[in-house]
Amino acid sequence: MEIKQIIEKAKKNDQSAFNVLLDFFWNDVYGFQLKRTENENDAEDITIQTFSKAFDKISSYNDTYEFKTWLITISKNIHIDFIRKRKSSFQTRSRYNNTDDFNDIIDESPSPEDKLITEQNLAKLLRDIKKLKPHYQEVINLRYFQELSYKEISEELNEPINNVKVKLLRAKKLLAEIIAKK
């Protein structure tokens, strides 16, 4: 089947078409980001965000352009946002550092209040995760709580790695919608 036909199926929300597009273009986008970030984790995160955003906005894709070019453009913009966030975080931290106090050591360990807030937020997050279907709960648990790699999750669930990636994308999107409804 031709890519244009697969894109048309994806525009009609065909999950198998999303899988085919992810399989077909994953290496292009990931390789592009790996060259830019020189960090496998950042490249993987940005690539996942790229496909998530592309799949959410697939109805706006204009087929006069190459699909790969459209994906790379989305990926490039996500990377730019990623750099901006890092820069602003770094500038904020450096703005508050007093250059006369080089010898002061800052205690960055969480206070008892911080720990309590974190525990409460984690409890809320876990309640929200429980609202997902069991297979989405499982993939989120394996990735974020057990910190398994995609390959390890793939082996654990006995599913192809790209299915794990798509399932995780979908789970994160559904979880975000649950959280946003509150």
From TrEMBL:
Tell me the keywords, alphabetical order.
Sigma factor, Transcription, Transcription regulation
Question: Which intervals hold domain RNA polymerase sigma-70 region?
Answer: 28-87
- InterPro entries (alphabetical): RNA_pol_sigma-70-like, RNA_pol_sigma-70_dom, RNA_pol_sigma70_r2, RNA_pol_sigma70_r4_t2, RNA_pol_sigma_r2, RNA_pol_sigma_r3/r4-like, WH-like_DNA-bd_sf
RNA polymerase sigma factor 70 region 4 type domain residues are 126-175
Any single GO molecular-function term of the entry would be: DNA binding
What's one Pfam family the UniProt record gives for this protein?
A: Sigma70_r4_2
What processes does the entry annotate via GO biological process terms?
DNA-templated transcription initiation
| Keyword presence, Transcription regulation | yes
CDD domains hit by this protein? Sigma70_r4
Q: Do you know which NCBIfam families this protein is assigned to?
A: sigma70-ECF (TIGR02937)
The record's similarity note reads:
Belongs to the sigma-70 factor family. ECF subfamily.
Q: What is this protein called?
A: RNA polymerase sigma-70 factor (ECF subfamily)
